[in-house]
Design a protein that fits this description.
The structure is a single chain. The protein is an alpha/beta fold. The chain has a domain of 203 residues: Rossmann fold. Strand 12, helix 15 and strand 13 form a beta-alpha-beta unit. Helix 5 packs antiparallel against helix 13, helix 6 crosses helix 12 and helix 11 crosses helix 12. It is elongated, with a radius of gyration of 41 Å.
């Protein structure tokens, strides 16, 4: 749930920090006090679109922060955090977003900088904002199949998992077929190109590690004179007559004689003896190399030509010999497919037909399960609608079969509803009445609130356009939803305010020619006055206070029954 919300320099809010609890929290206040601004701030915090116009006049940036506590170990947000490489400690997630006057945003999740898309993805798992006229997930026809599948998850999951595996293999095979199915002229051009390239690479006879060996050999050949002169000088200095090795031999003999007489020379004698034989071995090695050294201008030219060939091939086929050889293997396979195109096509086409038969069977099973679940869902939603005084409403889940397979099978699912007797059902998003739309949304949200995995649900004046017994029904339905998810609700209805577990009052004040918005949780007496104001308007009388008290008492009794 959303535990704490902080807002700085956002619209008419200078500095606001508020803590929230579970259950139903209602925010009320006079028109223009800034209730919707708070929702706008939460919307931006969850990754909504924002710009510099939200920044309070005179400030350089708007700062938004939210602390969420996750109580469910299998909450879908954990997977999203893992995919984004974000750690979570003590079941706490902190979202932060700064909107600068340049229009740019800086987003953080648990202190880690993230792109706006990641913030939006994570925010969607934590917050579900509903406004009266917004196109919500429930009002998006493309989402209806996912909602139905979620409702039928227990019975649908095993078949759906198998279908997904088969479908991905099917898509890959279709992609292979598409790559093979090219026109004759293009195919002939590719065959010629691949054959030329393969011949060029085969004649080059490339070997791994060859380039490094050639570079080393070229370096030796180009520095032949220096190598010969310096190695010869070294040999003469060690092995030449009356040179280093002779003098060290003399020192070795002398120290051996001294060590016989005095043991303190023994260590020095052994060191000189070791050095003598090491120098002798080094001299032999140098002499062997000198005997084999021979400058070959023709070989240097061969090396240069070979290196030039390698560079030319690297420009065409890859930055390394390894990449060039990998490219050779790739075009070898592709050339074989082109030369044997008809045979390969037949094999793959037969495989596609076989896979389509399997997919058709699985899609049929999916559809059967969905249609069974759809009947249960329709009954559950109509029961909710009856409680919302839409007794005549008829809700159905409409199925149409797609011509081709998609990731969900072959079902196209759309929620249809008829709210008046004699009127044919229409697609849910086409309902015109704001009051009916609000009640439909609440009915659906009641069904899905226990399983959608959303941490916090926010209703922004979804009760507009209703009154009387319908208003009371909506209030009770919102309260019912809050039994499973934290609900924050901005409302003008006294019935909704009376059902609140926590009631915040939003007011707007002017100080030093600047407007400020403040938010404060109100106690029982203040709640009576606020509900009284909502019932009667600006004037509060003893009678309206009595009615407000009665409404609050009735709401408390109803909540006790619901629990």
């Amino acid at each position: 749930m959303l535990r704490e919300l902080s807002i700085r320099n956002f619209a008419i809010i200078e500095d606001l920090t508020v803590s929230f609890s579970g259950g139903l929290t209602v925010l009320t206040g006079e028109t223009g006090a800034g209730k919707s601004i708070i929702i706008d701030a939460v919307h931006l915090l969850a990754g909504g679109r924002g710009n510099s116009e939200f920044i309070r006049h005179g400030a350089r940036k708007a700062e938004l922060g939210g602390l969420f506590q996750i109580s469910h170990a299998k909450h879908p947000v954990y997977k999203k955090l893992e995919e984004a490489g974000i750690e979570i400690e003590e079941d706490t997630i902190i979202l932060r977003r700064d909107v600068h006057d340049t229009g740019k945003s800086v987003c953080r999740v648990n202190g880690k900088l993230v792109p706006l898309s990641v913030l939006r993805d994570i925010g969607a798992s934590l917050i579900d904002i509903h406004g009266q006229h917004e196109n919500q997930e429930l009002m998006d026809e493309k989402q209806h199949i996912y909602l139905l599948d979620h409702y039928a998850e227990e019975s649908l999951a095993p078949i759906y998992t198998t279908y997904q595996t088969q479908y991905e293999e099917y898509r890959a095979l279709k992609k292979e077929l598409s790559s093979i199915s090219i026109d004759e002229q293009l195919m002939a051009q590719r065959i010629d190109l691949y054959q030329f390239q393969m011949k060029e690479l085969e004649e080059a006879n490339l070997k791994l590690g060859e380039e490094d060996e050639l570079l080393d050999e070229r370096r030796r050949l180009m520095n032949f004179n220096k190598i010969f002169e310096r190695s010869n000088a070294a040999y003469e200095a060690i092995q030449g007559e009356s040179k280093g090795l002779d003098w060290i031999g003399n020192a070795m003999g002398a120290l051996e004689d001294a060590a016989i007489v005095d043991e303190q020379f023994k260590e020095a004698s052994e060191a000189v003896t070791t050095a003598f034989y090491a120098l002798q071995d080094a001299a032999y090695q140098v002499k062997n190399v000198l005997d084999e050294l021979e400058f070959d201008p023709a070989r240097l030219n061969e090396v240069e030509q070979r290196l030039a060939l390698l560079q030319n091939l690297k420009r065409k086929y890859g930055s390394t010999v390894e990449e060039i050889l990998a490219y050779y293997e790739k075009i070898k396979v592709e050339l074989n497919e082109l030369l044997n195109r008809d045979e390969i096509l037949q094999v793959k086409e037969r495989k596609v037909v076989e896979m389509e038969a399997v997919l058709q069977q699985l899609a049929t099973e999916l559809s059967t399960v969905r249609k069974t679940a759809a009947k249960d869902l329709s009954e559950a939603i109509m029961a909710e609608l009856r409680e919302l005084h839409m007794e005549k409403a008829k809700f159905i889940v409409n199925f149409e079969e797609l011509l081709h397979f998609d990731s969900n099978g072959k079902d196209q699912v759309t929620f249809y509803i008829s709210t008046n007797v004699g009127e044919p059902p229409k697609s849910l998003p086409k309902i015109a009445s704001g009051g009916e739309l609000s009640r439909m949304m609440l009915a659906l949200k009641t069904i899905f609130s226990t399983s959608n995995g959303i941490t916090s649900i926010i209703f922004d004046e979804v009760d507009t356009g209703v009154s009387g017994r319908v208003a009371q029904a909506i209030a009770e339905k919102i309260a019912a939803i809050s039994m499973n998810s934290q609900v924050l609700c901005i409302s003008h209805l006294p019935q909704v305010a009376a059902m609140a577990d926590h009631h915040y009052f939003i007011k707007k004040e002017v100080e030093h020619d600047r407007t400020f918005t403040s938010l404060q949780e109100i106690d029982t007496n203040a709640r009576i006055e606020e509900v009284s104001r909502m019932m009667s308007g600006a004037e509060i009388t003893e009678l309206t206070l009595q009615h407000a008290t009665e409404l609050l008492n009735m709401a408390n009794a109803r909540k006790m029954q619901m629990r």
